Input
Amino acid sequence: MAKIYSKKNALAKEMKPKQEVVSFLLSYSKALHILKLDNKNFEFIAN
Output
């Protein structure tokens, strides 16, 4: 098992997301609002 972890992973490449994915995640995080009441959290997505 030690041999498996000691080898460099040939499939591991530097992951670069597309611009569309980054833009989607940023806009989603900006639209997400969390309202905390007592011990409950309510999540709203404002489009």
User: Anything to note?
Assistant: The mean pLDDT is 81. The helical segments are 2-6, 19-31.
